Amino acid sequence: MVTRSSIVRKVGEVIRKVCNPLVRDFHEIQRLQGYQNLSSFVQVTHERVRSKLLFELDSYNAATGSRYELVVFPIDGRENFFRGISDFTVSVLIKKDGKAFASVVELPMTHTTFYAELSSGAYLEDLGGTMRLKIKNCVAFDITKIVVFLDYMENRLDLVGRRMLGCDSLAACYVASCRGDALLLKVGDVNPELLSLIRLLIAESGGKELRFQDVVLFAHLDLCEKFKQLLGVTQ
């Protein structure tokens, strides 16, 4: 049986609550493509989600005397949302004593929740139930054909299976659930708190992190070792 801390359960409930009107807004945005005031509509939606999340979660902290720090990402993949593309998430990083304690990532359009808790594993919860996430070893594949999610154009590697989702938290969820093999991020382009959320989700799924120059790779240990060889990374 999967057990979650009360704060993770509460964050999940709050996110799902704010996602109902967000889904309605998304469908409205799909119909408004090309309208001049669309960016203003998206901005209002973003701020409404943010304020609702903070109000609900701050109220919970005050009522329970909790001292969790909550970092919210109202719409990660905002450009996708703006364009009527469903690859976006609503995410929250939960910090305890200044360190990442839990990550909750909601995919509003599919009613799917990914969450990870320090030393307790990572999980996927959807209409089919709950399952624990474990990143698998794919090093036996042709490394040039693995599916790598990235947020910038990578020219140092010959990768056929490159994907640019436009939503880093979603890409991390896909790697954690073996829907992709690796996530490649340019550190300077990613919000440090979002990077902490991703790092916890990947680590609790059994994945590893490889740093080289200004780039970080998240993948299975064996795949990280393979990339080390390709890139000549010594550390």
Automatic annotation (TrEMBL):
Superkingdom classification of source: Bacteria
Amino acids binding Mg(2+): I75, D76
Cofactor(s) the record lists: Mg(2+)
Keyword field: Magnesium, Metal-binding
One GO molecular-function entry: metal ion binding
Official protein name in the record: Inositol monophosphatase family protein
Organism from which the protein derives: Neorickettsia risticii (strain Illinois)
Higher taxonomy: Bacteria, Pseudomonadati, Pseudomonadota, Alphaproteobacteria, Rickettsiales
